[in-house]
Request: fold
Amino acid sequence: MRPRPRLLVIVVAVVLAACSSGAAPSVSGAWARPAAAAGISAAYFTITTPSGAADALLSATSPVADMVQIHETTTDGSGMTGMDAVDRVDVPAGSSVAFKPGGHHLMLMGLTSALAPGSTIELDLVFEHAGKVVVQAEIR
Amino acid sequence: MAQRPAVPQPGDEPSSVLDRAFWLVILIAAALVVVMLASMTLGGRSSGSPGVAGGAVTSPSASPLVDVASYLYPIAYEAPPIELTDPTDRPFALASLRGAPALVFFGYTHCPDVCPATIGTVGLAMEAYGPGPHAVFVSVDPQRDTTTSLREYVRYLPTGFTALTGSSDRIRSTADAWDVHYAKVATGVGGDYSMSHTADVFLVDAAGTLRAHFPFGTSSEAMTAVLRAVVETPGIASPTATPGATVAAAATPAATSVATATPSTATAGLGIEVVSSAVWAGTPGPVIVRLSVEGQALDDATEHPTVQLVSTAGERTGGSVSAVAVRPPGVPDVSYVATLAIPNPGPWRLEVTVSIAGGTWTGSVPIEVLDPGTTAPLGAPAPTVRTPTLADVGGVARAVTTDPAPDLRLSQTSTVDALAADEPFVLVIDSSRFRVSPVCGRAIIMARYLLDRWRDDAFIHLEPYHYHVIEDTAVLDGTLDAPTMTDPAVAWGIGGAPWGARSMPWTFVIDGAGIVRAKYQGVTGTADVDVMLALIADGG
Reply:
């Protein structure tokens, strides 16, 4: 019966390790629009938080863009659409927020190279609690 | 062998309980690890999103049934012109696409989200429809969208797309004609800006008639269905819109040109141009025409042509009526106004006869007569519900008008003040902000133009829909699909069948005796109202 305590310690360690990375939001289905160099693009994805770990997207950067802003497209009663920069996008614990065309998106400005369909770019998302989460977004 | 004190030692407690607790922890831990690994693995990969091609907006639940009528204009108009420059620096006119339907929308190439989404959706709709339709992208950002930058941009556009730009003035006047709004919005980065803009997609049919519009976010399936419906039902009337739509369509300027193009117009050499923007069934109302003999305009104010109403079956209906010659001040043209009682809405003909030196000339012209529905009847006293003035709302312009640059002369007088003063007036029921059709706001523009010509008459603007002012922004009560009418608009009979609440704008002309003399739905010719005001000023 001697090995059992050691196994327990290892299992607890694994669980703790999994918890610390598992508390971070997951970011899925990331994609961005094709664009010319020096142009602009928009990136989309879905953020999902684990239960018990609410978080908020605060900012983002990308090696391919001089500047990245979190935007929300809004349409008023008269059909005028516009984009508002937003400071944060809250994701309640155990839920998902989709960044999608016509809604939230990352606006990538000052592209350092053309974004060709089929390639991928890196997005570095900064969350309030989880810190930086690196995502690969497909250009399509 | 370091042991954490907190970890219980086997044998400290009865082993059966400890064993069970131990294996429970193992199981839960294993399950958690599996779930977390799975979510991390899936999360890191950009999985293909279903149904998205070219980054189009997908409809969350693409219903197989599309409510086609909800996208159609109740009244179809000739599409406003677009004459701009294409990416090859050649002039481009929308009219050159006649013969095929076109989807028209406004945007800008630095638009990261809305415009690419619209392009994707329109592209999918065109692809699903098959060959034929064109798409026209009109830039609202002439500062950055030069033809050079458009050349790069069109490389990313689906086939069948044209991108257009032009001078700032030309873009502005084009957008105004389509009632497309746009404005620069600073993004706070080194003078960078984005554009807020109307993101509707407009459908122009093969005859150049504006038939439908799609709000931003409309699915490609809906666009394809409406495209099919419009192509299958050519003509100026909306196939499934309000009962009034069929008769309504022909009263527009577009329909007038259709009418004058009819070969029978030229019979016996008398040319007849119908000036009236609207001719109504029911109580007697005005029909305004201009005449020409052998191509020469008949501008003789002493003439009294006779006008006879004729049914489509060729039967003369009612007696022949003597028309009154009217020449508005400063206008060289003479118009002739006949007051006709037309029993039913629908197609009719006018037979006009004029005797001048050298003989008698006759001609006839088809007209489309509208169903007045519940609107304030011609020849009857005007409703006496007070329209709000600027003074009534404590001087807060936004509370009486949604016009971003309001002409407050239109909000000085209430209809009841004008009636009490026995003063002729023009009432425009229109909204610059809450637009149910591309022509909304144009009645206000017409009123501003005529106001300078007719300074003794009152011009009164009334907002048709209830709204609240929140921090200087007009916010509609309810939705644009089912807006709530203001009380004065209801009193003037707007909102009832067959026109409904979304039939803006409306214009009424009232004489000094408080009688409704003319009314117009949709686009109203300034010449038309001008003639009516001149007739009233002459005591006619």
Residues 87 and 149 of chain B are 8 Å apart (CA to CA). The longest helix of chain B spans residues 15-44. DSSP finds twelve helices and 25 strands in chain B. The mean pLDDT of chain B is 80.
